Amino acid sequence: MTGLTVIVIPQPTVNGPLHIGHLSGPFLAADIAARAARLRGERVLTLAGIDVHPNYVLTKAENLGMDVGEMVTKFRTQITTAFELAGVGYDAFLDPQSEAYRAAIPKILGELVDNGTFPMRDLILHRCADCGRTMHHSYVVGKCANCGSGANGLSCEPCGSFTSAQTLVDASCARCGGTPEPWPVTVPVIPLEEYRDRLVGQWMQAELPGRVRTVLEHYLYVPLPDYPVAYPTNWGIECGGPLAGMRVDFPTELGISYLYGPANALRPEATNLAEWVGAWRDIEDVWHFNGIDNAFYFAILYPAILAAAGISKPSMRGATVNELYLLEGQKFSTSRNHALWADEFLAAEDAELVRLYLSWDRPDRYESNFTDAGYRAFCAWVQPLLAGDGATGALPVELAAAELERAEQALHLVGFDSALAVRCLLNALSTGTGRDSVAMAALLGR
Ligand SMILES: [Zn+2]
Ligand SMILES: [Zn+2]
After folding, report:
1. Distance, CA 128 to ligand 2 centroid (Å)?
2. Cα–Cα distance, 142 to 279 (Å, whole number)
């Protein structure tokens, strides 16, 4: 029997509902891949969940003037409704609001600190000289040291680099505009450099898109950081024992949840690190679905946490990433209310058609673009085909531009797929357009 593959569907942060851009990225793709694997007879275990502990959640509630608990309940319901309506299934749900999860995460962290795997180190973190907040994640803003784009303390959206108050250029407090004040602390870290050999081994073996490899290449030439796994701040799961007063760093929480989640699903009676690690005996590897901007986390931090915990097999088999999805030519934006909320859209539409359209137009290799006219034309074209009336024929002309764009994108050196390009070109030609396209000239050798 083949080994079990864990498929990670990332946990959405509960600072808003899912929009269809999110859905078009990791969520539908992971569900489709998991279903296809099962139909081939492969063994997969899908992990989904929600993410309550990034301080983006508290920031959002404060900006909305809402009680954070009420806000989390509201968005959590919208997110899980969207999963249900879209047919996004899972074998285990990582629920940071459940007692068992809230006990297990600091327990695993505490054991790794106690046995010296996560050593205590003297670090300089930063806090705001004016409001006193620990400057991490949504509390800090500055410029990416790698590409100069504006970023918070998590990662840089355009280039995928790791960012923190310590690495951002011209950092300031994102909440009050205050100045960062160096803050000597003694906190537990994962010394990522100690995992270099195992990480590089996994990077060599894993199926990773070029853009992920570009992020990783940077770390072939610079040391991997001592990454703080817990520190004093005002949001996140509280630690106990010798770490009292600190809270679990939220990406560390996610990394630990990818150890705990499958272990708990396979062996619910386990209650300590050795038993949770033991439950991994049957697991062959892990496949991540995620946005390109999270590459540092799914390709460095999470595999290092599994290795630190004692999972000895190469654990990262690969990652499927996506770019941003556009809405009528512009980025989705909650603040400008330029969004189509997944739960509302799915409630009003046929979920099977939404799954098909978002897959047909998936922003996998470039930023593709949702248009209402395109979606409506797609539905009118596809519905008779799904009903078995295959003779209804040609692609609607509204969809020709998207087919030609995909054909041309499929002819780039990276991700070259001429079979896909031919299919897209033929569809476009069936509308009477595309004879002057790049794809036509290249494929026909004109
Ligand atoms: Zn401040
Ligand atoms: Zn950058």
Report:
1. 23
2. 42
pTM above 0.70, yes or no: yes
pLDDT at 392 over 80: no
- Centre of ligand 2 to C-alpha 163, Å, is 8
- Distance from Cα 160 to the centre of ligand 2, integer Å: 6
pLDDT confidence of residue 2: 74
Query: How many Å lie between the centroid of ligand 2 and the Cα of residue 442?
Result: 34
Chain position carrying tokens 């195992």: 198
Pair of tokens at residue 433: 């357009």
- Ligand 1 centroid–CA 233 distance in Å is 13
What is the 99 CA–ligand 1 centroid distance (Å)? 32
What is the Cα–Cα distance from 205 to 182, expressed in whole angstroms?
A: 40
The CA-to-CA distance between both ends of the chain, in Å, stands at 50
Average pLDDT, the chain: 94
Quote the ligand 1 centre to 130 CA distance (angstroms). Answer: 5
Tell me the CA–centroid distance for residue 133 and ligand 1, in Å. 6
Q: Which ligand is nearest to the CA of 169?
A: 2
| Nearest ligand atom owner, CA of 155 | 2
* Cα of 250 from ligand 2 centre, angstroms: 21
Three-state SS string over the chain comes to CCCEEEEECCCCECCCCCEHHHHHHHHHHHHHHHHHHHHCCCCEEEEEECECCCCHHHHHHHHHCCCHHHHHHHHHHHHHHHHHHHCCCCCEEECCCCHHHHHHHHHHHHHHHHCCCCCEEEEEEEEECCCCCECCEEEEEEECCCCCCEEEECECCCCCCECCCCCCEEEEECCCCCCEEEEEEEEEEEEHHHHHHHHHHHHHHCECCHHHHHHHHHHHHCCCCEEECEECCCCCCECCHHHCCCEECHHHHHHHHHHHHHHHHHCCCCCCHHHHHHHHHHEEEEEEEEEHHHHHHHHHHHHHHHHHHCCCCCCEEEEEEECCCEECCEECECCCCECCEHHHHHHHCCHHHHHHHHHHCCCCCCCCEECHHHHHHHHHHHHHHHCCCHHHCCCCHHHHHHHHHHHHHCCCCCCCCHHHHHHHHHHHHCCCCCCCCHHHHHHHCC
Residues 101-150 pLDDT 10s: 999 999 999 999 999 999 999 999 999 999 999 999 999 999 999 999 99
Residue with tokens 């070029």: 210
Which of the residue ranges 214-228, 305-319, 333-347, 385-399 would you say has the lowest mean pLDDT?
385-399
Distance of CA 64 from the midpoint of ligand 1 (Å): 18
